[in-house]
């Protein structure tokens, strides 16, 4: 691999799903199939349905490219695993990519070993894969290791290592790590800091963090009461196919000015749903 890591190898914090799709399309026009696929993967994980179909379209090209490109092997393996196409083939491809030093290959192989996908569970070997990927700068592997230190999976439980690795992943913008760190800080009554991480996770499309952030903004936990921002995140959950925020948003809208509800809808990119909340007021 090149000493200069490609841009897609770094988690794209603060980049919208639509912008990620645009990056993928631009990479396709430039003939960079691997970059395009990785941008589409990020977009899919943020809930962009269009990205899933684009990844399916790329698979034949990736199959051909994988014969000579180890990054393509790791990407193809991840797509096949995400789309539940061929677990055994995914394991083989991840293994080849990992052996060639690809951090995504090491992480993917570790994930499959940890959960026993296409292979017998081996959390000890999984952690070795995650540790090696982390040495290459893969912060998703920091999150995976953190969880394993917390659960004692393949390693003795170690709360200090758990928190150190969790913070490392969260500072890199990994949404699952931000949400989990928010939980840990909340348990320690560090509500303002906890909310900052819930909001980071929410910005990256993490629906449970959106719900917590919305409730805290509504109730003034770790912040001043902010009903506009609360409805913004209740409605934002719809982007992930989660409608659990609709009822609390409806209740909250009852006592708000029309302009406030519309502003919340604008921030969420959910103007139509905001108008429905306004029409539903009694």
Write the layout of secondary structure elements.
Elements: H1 17-29, H2 33-45, H3 49-65, H4 70-82, H5 87-99, H6 103-115, H7 123-135, H8 139-151, H9 159-171, H10 175-187, H11 191-203, H12 207-219, H13 227-236, H14 246-253, H15 258-268, H16 271-279
Helix pairs in contact: 1-2, 2-3, 2-4, 3-4, 4-5, 5-6, 6-7, 7-8, 8-9, 9-10, 10-11, 11-12, 12-13, 13-14, 13-15, 15-16
Count up the domains.
Answer: 2
Q: Give the class-level CATH name of the largest domain.
A: Mainly Alpha
SSE run = HHHHHHHHHHHHHHHH
- What share of the residues lie within helices? over 70%
- Can you summarize the main beta sheet? none
Number of strands: 0
Q: Name the beta content range.
A: under 5%
* Poorly predicted parts: none
So what's the overall shape? globular
Mean pLDDT: 96
Q: What's the helix count?
A: 16
Remind me, CATH topology of the largest domain? Serine Threonine Protein Phosphatase 5, Tetratricopeptide repeat
Termini separation comes to: 62 Å
Per CATH, the architecture of the largest domain is: Alpha Horseshoe
- The structural class is mainly alpha
Evaluate the radius of gyration.
20 Å
